[in-house]
Amino acid sequence: MSHAIRVAVAGASGKMGQAVISELLASPARFELHAAFDQPGSALLGRDAAERFGMSSGVKVTEGPEACRGAQVLIDFTRPEATMTHLKVCQQYGIRPVIGTTGFSDEQHQAIKELSSRQAVVLAPNMSVGVNIFFRLAELAAGLMNQGYDIEIIEAHHRAKVDAPSGTALKAGERVAKAAGRQWPQSAVWQRHGYTGARNDDDIGFSVIRGGDIIGDHTVMFAGQGERIELTHRSSSRTTYATGALRAAVFVVEQPSGLFDMPDVLGLSTLKAE
Known about the structure:
The protein has seven helices and twelve strands. The protein is an alpha/beta fold. The chain folds into two domains: 5-123 and 238-266, NAD(P)-binding Rossmann-like Domain (Rossmann fold), CATH 3.40.50.720; 129-235, 2-Layer Sandwich (Dihydrodipicolinate Reductase, domain 2). It has a seven-stranded parallel β-sheet, with helices on both faces. Strand 5, helix 3 (106-116) and strand 6 (120-123) form a beta-alpha-beta unit. The longest helix is centred in the middle third of the chain and has 16 residues, at 129-144. The chain is elongated, with a radius of gyration of 20 Å. The model has no long low-confidence stretch (mean pLDDT 94).
């Protein structure tokens, strides 16, 4: 790579925005912080994007995404409505988005898919390398234990997370359902309360925990007669998501168009279990 990739960061004052900025500035030969922006009322507006961790980036946080002009990639970990607004700017200026936002509606997913027919987009509910290997292991287990095992998915996040289940839990459910030959999302059971009766063989149950400062824990449980297998991934730092997003930036800038996920970025899409 002969030139640093020009990156804009949405939600610059948020925890993920700050993590991305920190990792980005740690690799000046590969990345350039081109712009950082946030919503109205952000405490960082008009201040240096790296001020909170004692660095100077030379980039001031602005209000709104217009500062993205000239960037090659936008990294966005915000909320669905904000992301959809940011994507209009990406379309206008030919910027390739890397989206870690979760909670999109079907209509919003369709709009992202339509954008990807014109320019490359990476859309991933979880950009951690470890989580994406976790997905692959869960798929393998689901394919081998598709009969006689009940599947449950448990996720835990910090008290401020606004969507449930997490995008990572939903992606895990989608992938294990496909591997186990179960219909998705028809097989999903989102909540249980009162007299529910016995579970159906094809059910994939979801349990959600919200509390404290939990960054993100996910477990896929395969419960059989007399035994169970639990696959768990726990995040202890947002750095893993930030480094994954930068790997996605390196990948997407080389793609002319198309909708990609982290398995594409990491080369896991073609990985076969022997």
